[in-house]
Amino acid sequence: MDRVFIEGLKVDALIGVYDWEREILQPLEFDIEMATDIRPAAADDELSLTLDYFSISQAITELVKNSSYKLIETLAESVSELIREKFGVCWVKVKVSKPGAVPNARNVAVQIERGNLAPNTAESSQ
Predict the structure, then answer these.
(1) For the domain that residue 14 is a member of, what is the CATH number?
(2) Which of 17, 35, 39, 126 has the most other CB atoms within 10 Å of its CB?
(3) CB–CB of 30/94 below 8 Å?
(4) Straight-line distance from the first to the last Cα atom of the chain, in angstroms, rounded to the nearest whole number
(5) What positions carry a catalytic annotation?
(6) pLDDT by residue (tens digit) across 49-59?
(7) According to DSSP H, which parts of 6-117 are helical?
């Protein structure tokens, strides 16, 4: 399975559990890794046959700007669901970073993986 990456996507978000965090926008950074088969796109040099990282980036940005989650864990889940459902990705890794959230730490982050890289043998044998 091939991989498509979006790294360092920066979006300001209303996120956090403290009252003061609910009143300001805070910078988040997203690193996304998606599994797909890029051979058809490579063979035909055709964008419609692969993952359009510009469209995916726009969809993530829109989701984040229209949300107000308390936890980056919840946001990571929502981003992974969006990518898998809207763009038909079978497996995704999402890292959400919240730089400067903790004093004396450059960054805090969560990273999740959702989906399956291996073909479902039960379905493929039917």
Answers:
(1) 3.30.1130.10
(2) 35
(3) yes
(4) 22
(5) 98
(6) 999 999 999 99
(7) 39-44, 53-65, 72-87
